[in-house]
Design goal:
With 472 residues, the protein is mainly β. The protein is built from 6 helices and 20 strands. It has an 18-stranded antiparallel beta barrel. The two termini are 17 Å apart.
C-alpha cells in the first residue's frame, strides 16, 4: 500500500510541476510542514480535488468507492494528451529493485496492541447472584526480523490474563512468566529446485498452546468460563507443492498440567503429542483438504492413542459469498463430527459482513483421554470457547458499518444436546452486541452488552463492558 501511495504521489508530482496554479485554494487542516503537503496541492492544481466545502481535506478519513471513482475519473482526464510512459517505466523499474532488495538483518519490526477494559457483571441478576466489576488489560507485542525473503523469526509477548484474572489454571495461576506469556516462531525455506520441486517451507514454533478460563473467580462474570486465548503449540510444520497438490506435515507437543515442555514430570507422564498431515487441492477456486491426525498421551508403561481423519471444503460463490464445511471421520457415528459456515461480505454494498456457522460433535469425537489437553480438537464457537463432545452448536456474527468511523457488531451462540433440544447440563446461550468507534486510525473505543444462560449453572447473567484498543 505504501508503494502504491508513493507511486501516485510521484506521478502527480511529475504532472503537477508542469501546470500553472489555476486558483488559490487553501486547506485548513493541512500544515505547511506536513509530508503530504505538496502532493495534495498538486491534486488541486490538476483539478482532481478542492477538498471539502468547509475548506478541510480530512486526509485521515477513508474514501468511499464513489469518492474513489470520482477521484480516478478526474485524474485520468487531467492526464489526457500527456505521455508519462518513460517516467512510469523508470519508476516501475525502481520499485522492482526495491522489492527485490533483501531486508537488512538489523531491521526489527515491532507491532502490537494494548486493550484496556472495564466489565460489570450481574447487573440484572434475579437469583441471588451478586453484581461485581473487573478491570483488565491485555498487551500483545510482536517483534519480527526478516533475514531474507525465505527466512524470518518472530517473538510474541501476550499478557493474556496475567496479573488480574487468576482462576488457578490460566497464565497467572501457573506463575511461569516466560513459558506462559511468550512464544517464538521461525520460518525458513529449503531449495528443492534441483529435484524439480517447489521449495520446502518450514515453520518452527515454541509456545504454551491455547489457554482457557476454567472458572470465574469474580463470581460475577460466568460468561467468561471456557473462553480461550489461542496461542501456538510447540512443534514444527513443513509444507510444499508437488504436482499441483499442497502437502503439509507437522508434529506438535503440548504440556500436561504439572509437567514441563518436552519433558517428563516426576509421575512419569509425557506431553500430549499430535502428528498431522494434510493434502490440499485447488479445483477451479474450490479448496479441498484431506487431513489425518494421530494423537498420543500416556505414561512410561501405557499409552493412550487415537487417530482421526477429516475433509474440509472451501468454496466461493462470487466475490461476496463464501462457504466452508468440515467432516471429521471415526470408526463409529459417535466418533464423527460435521461443521459448516456461510459468510457474506458486504453483499448489498451497505457495509454489512455476516457469518453463520453450525457444528455437530459426536459424543466421543474427542477421545476422553485427550479432553483436557486437546480440548480444541473440534474447533471453537463464536466466543472462542472450545466445542465439546455430544453437542450441537449454532452461532453467527454480524458487523454493520454505520459511519466512516463507527460500526455496530453482534454475535451469538447457542449450544444444545445431540438431540437438538435446549435442555440438560449442556444447554447454553450467549449473545452480545455493541458498537466500535474509531477515535483515530490507531485507537478504537468500544462498548458492549452481553446476556448469558448456562443450564449447568442454573442461572442467567449479563455483562456490560467498555474498552479501549490502541494499536502500534
Amino acid at each position: 500500500m505504501k508503494h502504491k501511495i508513493a507511486i501516485m504521489i510521484i506521478v502527480l508530482g511529475l504532472a503537477g510541476s508542469a501546470l500553472a496554479q489555476t486558483s488559490e485554494v487553501r486547506i485548513k487542516d493541512l500544515p505547511d510542514d506536513h509530508w503530504g503537503y505538496a502532493a495534495v496541492y498538486d491534486l488541486i492544481r490538476l483539478g482532481v480535488t478542492k477538498g471539502y466545502p468547509d475548506g478541510t481535506y480530512r486526509g485521515d478519513k477513508p474514501m468511499s468507492r464513489y469518492e474513489a471513482a470520482l477521484f480516478l475519473s478526474k485524474l485520468s482526464k487531467s492526464f489526457e494528451g500527456k505521455d508519462f510512459s518513460s517516467d512510469l517505466k523508470e519508476l516501475r523499474d525502481q520499485i522492482v529493485l526495491i522489492r527485490q532488495k533483501p531486508k537488512s538483518k538489523d531491521d526489527l519490526d515491532v507491532t502490537g496492541n494494548y486493550v484496556s477494559k472495564w466489565e460489570a457483571g450481574n447487573l440484572l441478576a434475579t437469583k441471588g447472584a451478586k453484581p461485581g466489576t473487573l478491570g483488565n488489560y491485555r498487551l500483545v507485542v510482536t517483534a519480527s526480523r526478516e533475514f531474507s525473503p525465505d527466512a524470518a523469526v518472530k517473538v510474541n509477548l501476550d499478557t493474556m490474563d496475567y496479573g488480574y484474572y487468576d482462576d488457578g489454571t490460566g497464565a497467572a495461576g501457573h506463575g511461569k512468566l516466560a513459558p506462559e506469556l511468550m512464544d517464538i516462531e521461525s520460518r525458513f525455506a529449503i531449495d528443492l529446485s534441483h529435484y524439480n520441486f517447489a521449495p520446502l517451507e518450514v515453520k518452527v514454533t515454541y509456545g504454551p498452546g491455547p489457554k482457557r478460563h476454567l472458572a470465574d473467580p469474580t463470581g460475577a462474570i460466568p460468561s467468561e468460563i471456557g473462553m480461550t486465548y489461542i496461542r501456538p503449540d510447540s512443534g514444527v510444520l513443513a509444507s510444499t507443492k508437488i504436482y499441483g497438490a499442497e502437502l503439509k506435515g507437522g508434529y506438535y507437543s503440548r504440556q500436561i498440567a504439572g509437567g514441563d515442555y518436552f519433558q517428563n514430570d516426576n509421575s512419569g507422564k509425557a506431553t500430549s503429542s499430535l502428528l498431522t498431515g494434510t493434502v490440499g487441492f485447488d479445483l477451479n477456486s474450490i479448496k479441498l483438504d484431506f487431513t489425518g491426525d494421530y494423537m498420543s498421551l500416556g505414561n512410561i508403561n501405557t499409552d493412550n492413542r487415537t487417530m482421526r481423519a477429516k475433509i474440509a471444503v472451501t468454496a466461493p460463490f462470487g466475490e461476496k459469498v463464501s462457504a466452508s464445511g468440515t467432516i471429521g471421520f471415526g470408526s463409529e457415528k459417535k466418533k464423527m463430527m460435521v461443521a459448516g459456515s456461510v459468510s457474506l461480505n458486504d453483499p448489498w454494498d451497505t457495509g454489512t459482513v455476516f457469518t453463520v456457522q453450525a457444528a455437530k460433535i459426536g459424543s466421543e469425537y474427542i477421545n476422553p483421554a485427550f479432553t483436557a489437553d486437546r480440548f480444541d480438537f473440534a474447533g471453537y464457537d463464536g466466543f472462542n470457547r472450545p466445542l465439546e463432545n455430544g453437542t450441537v452448536n449454532v452461532g453467527g456474527k454480524l458487523v454493520q458499518l454505520v459511519a466512516d468511523n463507527a460500526k455496530l457488531f453482534g454475535r451469538g451462540d447457542i449450544r444444545m444436546g445431540s438431540d437438538l433440544k435446549y435442555a440438560g447440563d449442556r444447554a447454553r446461550f450467549t449473545a452480545e452486541g455493541g458498537i466500535i468507534y474509531s477515535l483515530s486510525p490507531n485507537v478504537d473505543l468500544d462498548a458492549a452488552y452481553r446476556v448469558h444462560q448456562d443450564m449447568q449453572l442454573n442461572d442467567a447473567s449479563d455483562l456490560a463492558a467498555v474498552g479501549l484498543l490502541y494499536r502500534f
